[in-house]
Amino acid sequence: MNPSFITLKDDNQPILILSGRWLLGNLSSIKKEFEGLKAKLPRTGVIFLDCKDIEEMDTASMLFFISMRKSLKSGLKVSAKGLNPSFLRLFKVMSLCYVEADFKPRHPRLVSRLLYHIGENTAQAVGDFRSFLDFTGRSTLAFLKDLAHPSGIRLNELAVNIQNIGVMAVPIIALSAFLIGVVIAFQSAVQLKNYGANIFIVDMVGISIPRELSPLITAIVVAGRSASAFTAQIGAMKVTEELDAMETLGFDTYRFIILPRILATIITLPLLIFFADIVGIYAGMLVSSLQLDIRPAQFLERLEEAVSIRHYLIGLLKGPFFALAIASIGCFRGLQVSRNTQSIGRYTTVSVVNSIFAVIFLDAVFSIIFTELKL
Questions:
Q1: Looking at the DSSP assignment, which residues form a beta bridge with residue 63?
Q2: pLDDT of residue 267
Q3: Residues near 204 by Cβ (< 8 Å), separated by ≥ 6?
Q4: pLDDT at 101 over 80
Q5: What is the mean pLDDT of the chain?
Q6: How far is Cα 324 from Cα 226, in angstroms, rounded to an integer?
Q7: For a tag on the chain, would you pick the N or C end, based on fewer CB atoms within 10 A?
């Protein structure tokens, strides 16, 4: 369903609620919606323009906003509210430049549209990066405050988040690790059997699962479950103005909302990776017994001889870094939700995609570093 940019609320007092991204690419739809609402507007009296749900507005859309306001003022008394300071500055500048004309958005050519979208996405990416730096700084400051005053740490909130992120995820983590262990062991068994190197399946399972596959699969599952949950929870709190109420009462939202989620993820993810190691290796041992007639005692003896403990430690070391990325992205995207329910779904999807990409990127970086260090 296409997003709505202008809706009419007409209880006792008509209000035009403006929302969404007022950009050049959406201008045709915005103008079409306004033309469709014109017949429903009163001829005389007062009408309010509620602008607080506008997420973005460029100069072309501001010109149309000024034009729309002027056309309404021909018979009505118009009052605008909720225009944020940056839009208000743009309104003042564009009002000086505004020349009345028949405003018709042009349909840019393909190259122009392509360049426009590249520029728009680049500007948005730079803005997101700056906002994320601000989020990181505030979260670090909240963490330092908690370190200085440990009594301020919300242990109940931390425990609830550990339960949601860790305990509730155990079944899906167990199933995922078991299946990955079965796939790796089964595929390896077929090839190793041809060369009479059956026993080396232990090396294959014992290194690949704890070092690479278990941390990666566990982090992806946690990203899918918890990053989306963080974004949806914080986004809902923002839509219902719960975060505004907390700040008004003097509560630091980063200490009360953000930090418990980040700390809980950092504590939980290494434990889940350790659990996935056990399940994945057990699955490999089971397949080795059924396919290659390697008894469990033989499997465990070879595992102890051939697989160094550093492979397990490297996998566990990745956990806190993956957790920090997942929780930070989930909470950050939740704070970006605007005051309408549609943006909750959009930012939830974005947070999952960003989290999974961050996990894969970090895993690639770790692989390069550990290879260069010959670990």
A1: none
A2: 94
A3: 184, 185, 188, 192, 284
A4: no
A5: 86
A6: 12
A7: N
pLDDT tens digits along 295-332: 889 889 998 888 888 989 999 999 999 999 999 999 99
What per-residue confidence (pLDDT) applies to 7?
79
Percent of the chain clearing pLDDT 70 (strictly above): 95
Q: How far apart are CA 305 and CA 285, in angstroms?
A: 15
Tokens 């919300």 locate to 154
Of 260, 258, 250, the closest CA to residue 137 belongs to 258
Average pLDDT over residues 1-9: 71
pLDDT at residue 275 greater than cutoff 70: yes
* Radius of gyration of the chain from its Cα atoms, rounded to whole angstroms: 28
Tokens of 62: 């501001």
Lookup result for tokens 């500007």 = 123
Residue bearing tokens 């980040």: 262
Helix axes 110-148, 309-336, angle to 10 degrees: 110
pLDDT at 112 over 70: yes
Place of tokens 């020349």: 99
Q: Which tokens go with 115?
A: 């360049």
